[in-house]
Amino acid sequence: MSQQGWKFQGKQGEFKLTHPENHSYLYFPLVNEAGMMSAITPNLHGEITSSHNTFLMEPVSVDNLHNSKASRNFWVHIEGYGAWSASGNSARQNAQQFSDAKEDSFMEAGFLWHKLTRNNQEVGLKAETVSFVPVTDDKVELMKVSLTNTGKSPIQLTPTAAIPLYGRSADDLRDHRHVTSLLHRIYPSEYGVEVQPALSFDERGHRINKVTYGVLGSDASGAAPTGLFPVTEEFVGEGGALDWPEAVVANLEPNTARGVTIEGYEAVGGLRFEHVQLLPGQSVSYIVAMIISDDRIETERYAKDYLSEACFNALLEENKTYWLEKLDTISFHSGDQEQDMWMKWVTLQPILRRMYGNSFLPYHDYGRGGRGWRDLWQDCLALMVMEPSEVRYLLHNNYAGVRIDGSNATIIGSKPGEFVADRNNIPRVWMDHGAWPLLTTLLYIRQSGDIDFLLQPQSYFRDSFVKRCHDRDLSWKPEHGNQLLSREGSLYEGTILEHILLQNIVPFFNVGEHNNIKLEGADWNDGLDLAPDRGESVAFTAFYASNLLELSELLLHLKKVSNMETIELAEEMIVLFDTLSSAISYESITDKHALLERYYDSIVPTISGKKLKLDIEKVAADLQHKAEWVIDHLRKNEWIVNKEGFEWFNGYYNNDSERVEGDYPSGVRMTLTGQVFSIMGGIATDEQVGKIVNAVDRYLKDDHIGYRLNSQFGGIQQNLGRAFGFAFGHKENGAMFSHMTVMYANALYKRGFVKEGHQVLDSIYSLSADFGTSRMYPGVPEYINEKGRGMYTYLTGSASWLLLTELTEVYGVKGHYGDLHLEPKLTKEQFDQEGNASVETLFADRMLRIVYHNPKHADFGQYRIASITLNGKPISYEEHGLGSLIGRSILESLPKDNTHTIDIILDV
Description:
By secondary structure, this protein is α+β, with helices and mostly antiparallel strands. It has 22 helices and 53 strands. An eleven-stranded antiparallel beta sheet has the order 1-2-9-10-11-12-23-18-15-14-20, covered by helices on one side. Strands 7, 8, 13, 19, 21 and 22 form a six-stranded antiparallel beta sheet that branches.
């Protein structure tokens, strides 16, 4: 699939790319649970960090990857030839890149390791450099360089490792770059170079620093370097540079004594190894460890644990096994083995999001680490399938970020239960934030059957911002903490259900001039951030409407399985269930605002702490009434028919309270977001879904880049959002934004438009895997730009949605309050030649191999489930919708240690 690019090797997702240096912006992630986060490029550029304030290598953006000279370099001075870089990072090799003298090179990668091979045919020297971050408790990246004489004559060479040690916060890159180097304390040791800055430099208060950065090395046997070059300016020499350093080019002898302290200079891990003669066919290897430590580095321990070829090889195998086992919790087997292996890389991406957050890779050069509220809930979608043991704890903890006014903290700290209002303490409310937790929680409950989760108590987030950040409570002080207290000063806790109800009911009343929910700071599309006063998000009004319906059904199910007649809620909330007390007209925007203000006034500065018991059926009926009103409102008022006869839903109103979509002098305006949630939530009728598909194909589908997020609006929309300042076809302005495109596919599958949904998913795969255009490694990007290049690779919430869509909609493996629901929506081309398609996944804490047998090669809509066997024996199941249910008790009776096979025969 990857035309003129990478090729898969074997069946474990490993791939190979020839002459990788010919392609810009490529990088690969290396990471571990201890907190080491690296990015590595085909010439071993990139960055190494454990947080925003602790970068071992200099923080980089994508353009630095080919413009900066700093990299993980390993030099060889070859007698009779001169300096040569095993990473290809030298002035000489860079000059040869586009000439006939270009070296042979290729990179290989797997889960999660990276290998670069370069062959200097002129000299007859091959270098293989393997890099990975071991799955230990240390923050360390390892690199092994193997040099082989491929010629017919002996080679005399002197090796030198050279990794620049930035050793400080990303904030210091532009702010006091030189001044912060004066804080450096450089400690040459037996095995390498350590840097421990004296202070953590911050003009708000300089603090004593303990964090230490180091580069240690040895030869294959564990022998230490023969000498060191710890100071950058001495290593490169006057007039020299990191890609042509005097110490290597002139083959200087190192003269830095071990055990001394050097202060006040930029540092480099310059490690000189013993001069060696390589006979034809002979090889020699070197190990380099790049370390971030909480204090001075335990050199002897690191040397013992990491600095030998035997240790390196053992740790590499352990690393490969660890990642393959983690990713084997879900795997797809269809008629397209290439796409199945590509999906393996998509499966990795939600894990990378959990570990990196949304920072620390070259495209993600913003933020200071951590994740936003929306990221937290959407990443949990995939973790439920891949790492289910932690999900209940994570979900419960996440709800502590909800405010009693229905809004929430927007930034999640590194510790459980740590939340802040926003980056840089700017208070802002994204109107969509309240919608996502229910979706994720419903998936958890349907997968697990854990309905009691709804009744678990949890605290609320509290800071000075009240009334959805429109006001400040000056009586609140930071020393009060970040948890809501009652009037008596005791911690207030409500059930998870109470949190969910607040996040979905409050927005119902928070409407704009067209009776749709206000856009506020933005919705899912952060780029729509300039309509806080009169803007409305019709798209997410549809999402909230479907949530209210889901909540109504969930409450009735809770009553059915628990025999509960009532639920307990904060007494202040009764006003929000207006049909239970004093019903208002939902057509009246004034009445909605007045009711919401009454609720706000009752919870500021705090609440009573008392609770009322409400009848479950009456609460469910109230929610259903609200949902049905919204659905009817949207169908009547937001359906567009344009001059060309195409029809779809309007998605937004701008800050002048003008409808955003439809016919304009500049052309037709349309957003994909406005269609996704109306389809997914059942707002659009089946007939309307068909018309929406036609309109999307007409105005948003582009054969070159896929399904655009929006059509060309023309001009900067200062009354809608910054996104329209971006060039059209880039990022949130008209690119193929994978997240919403995958959700569009998901919505189509949910509504039974399988052919159309499959076409959307296939376009994402085809565009991403076509390396000749996308120029990216396997996986799904955040977006595809106007040129077809995949952008912002690895860290995208679209990976979670793509994984879940494949599993729950395409392969039809999902939960129904704990039971296994099988409802395949595979098209005939997705089965292999024998008519089989299968998925391996965790369900009910058992590994299941679910195999669909389609011997007649029928297409979706033609086949039905004819029989089901478990481990070769017939089992009882019941029909459910268009699929079948297998009781959870049947699965829980199976041993946990085995993989169990469920065979489903499909017949016409």
